[in-house]
Specification:
The protein has one domain (89-332): Methylamine Dehydrogenase, Chain H, CATH 2.130.10. The protein is 1% helix and 50% strand. It is built from 1 helix and 28 strands. The chain has one helix spanning 31-34, and strands at 2-9, 23-29, 38-42, 46-51, 56-63, 68-76, 80-86, 89-95, 100-102, 105-108, 114-119, 125-130, 135-139, 147-149, 162-167, 171-176, 181-187, 198-206, 215-220, 224-229, 234-239, 256-262, 275-280, 284-289, 294-298, 315-320, 330-336, 340-346. The strands form 7 sheets. The protein has a 4-stranded antiparallel beta sheet, with no helix packed on it. Strands 3-4-5-6 form a 4-stranded antiparallel beta sheet, with no helix packed on it. Strand 9 (100-102) and strand 10 form a beta hairpin. The protein is globular. Residues 111-341 form the RCC1-like domain. RCC repeats lie at residues 179-231, 232-291. This is RCC1-like domain-containing protein. InterPro entries: RCC1-like_dom, RCC1/BLIP-II, Reg_chr_condens, Ub_ligase/GEF_domain.
């Protein structure tokens, strides 16, 4: 049996629809009220969950089509695999057959079936990965035809085989089946991980730092990035304002980090832990370690770090979220909206 816990910004009741407080600072169980066992999408004001047993989707928070806050409302999940959208709401979805849809109609015919899709947090640019390992880009507003994105690895050769993609405000990371990471878009805060600050990188370029390490998971925040290697190491890079990278001890420490930094849990008393999952919000990061515990860092103003009402300050290093609510349970997955956090637990 899976449970969902949530915490963070709740002004639209998008974090805990059963609670009217604007800030939820400690993890709270929303499983019963939402009737969900997973969260599949969240933005600044709304959330989409799923009941995998009954194949029902549940939406709650601010409904921009009705211009009001709504309680969890269900509709059939059908064959939906993944949703994509931005701060304005859900813009489309990918079904299990590899087709992309937007607002009830098929929007783009790609040369091959789609296996993953992500949208920039702001703007209408969408990145898709097809089953033949190619990257495609299109814009939802101008109805342009999908354009193939050419990528280069560190030697300049072509044709890496991509498997998934993630997006931040205006940058993207893509992962290949060989565990290689590519990045492109805005790099002004170092969020591309190439060791330099650049206004824009047009083509997906292999992050040389990770050559030979083999990456298994990637995540994008607004202006920062996170990567987990096969060995369980977590690296972060990009804008460190509010401590969202978890690499520094205070406000006077490094603000921007253009090269990936290895995370040491426990600060100077480094604890040997392998990281299973990572998720990034606008200015915070959460990670699940192999003891199924949660760690968080970054901006904590709205309780999105899960540390309690007396700890809404910023955390510049990863801190363990030690909640009595789930001490005897296993945290197996995590997802962040801009200013909130959702956890999936096994009893």
């Amino acid at each position: 049996m899976r449970q969902i816990y949530s915490f963070g910004y709740n002004s639209f009741q998008q974090t805990n629809p059963a609670n009217n407080d604007d800030i939820i600072s400690v993890p709270s169980d929303i499983t019963g009220f939402t009737q969900c066992d997973d969260i599949i999408w969240a933005n600044i004001s709304s959330t989409l969950g799923i009941n995998n047993i009954e194949r029902k989707l549940m939406f709650w928070g601010f409904d921009d089509t009705r211009n009001k806050i709504i309680s969890p409302t269900h509709f059939p999940a059908q064959n939906i695999m993944k949703y994509f959208g931005d701060d304005n709401g859900i813009q489309g979805y990918l079904d299990i057959n590899g087709n992309l849809y937007g607002h009830s109609k098929k929007i783009f015919n790609l040369p091959a079936k789609c296996v993953d899709v992500a949208q920039m947090w702001t703007g209408s640019n969408v990145i898709a990965v097809t089953m033949d390992g190619k990257l495609w880009q299109f814009n939802l507003k101008n109805n342009e035809k999908p354009k193939k994105i050419t990528a280069f690895d560190e030697s300049g050769s072509l044709n890496p085989f991509f498997t998934n993609v993630v997006c931040g405000e205006n940058h993207s990371l893509a992962l290949t089946r060989d565990g290689e990471v590519f990045s492109w878009g805005s790099g002004r805060f170092g969020q591309l991980g190439h060791g330099e600050f650049t206004n824009s990188l047009e083509k997906p370029t292999s992050i040389e730092f990770f050559q030979g390490l083999r990456v298994k998971e990637i995540a994008c925040g607004g202006f920062h990035s996170a990567v987990i290697t096969d060995s369980g190491d977590l690296y972060t890079f990009g804008w460190n304002h509010f401590g969202r990278l978890g690499i520094s001890s205070g406000k006077d420490s490094m603000v921007n980090c253009a090269e990936p930094s290895l995370i040491e849990f426990g600060g100077e008393n480094d604890i040997e832990l392998n990281v299973l999952k990572v998720a990034c919000g606008s200015a915070h990061t959460v990670a699940i370690t192999d003891d199924y515990r949660l760690w968080s860092c970054g901006w904590g103003k709205y309780g999105q770090l899960g540390l309690g009402a007396d700890r809404l300050n910023d955390n510049y290093l990863f801190v363990q979220v030690d909640s009595t609510e789930f001490r005897d349970k296993q945290i197996v997955d995590c997802l962040c909206g801009r200013w909130n956090t959702f956890l999936i637990l096994n009893k």
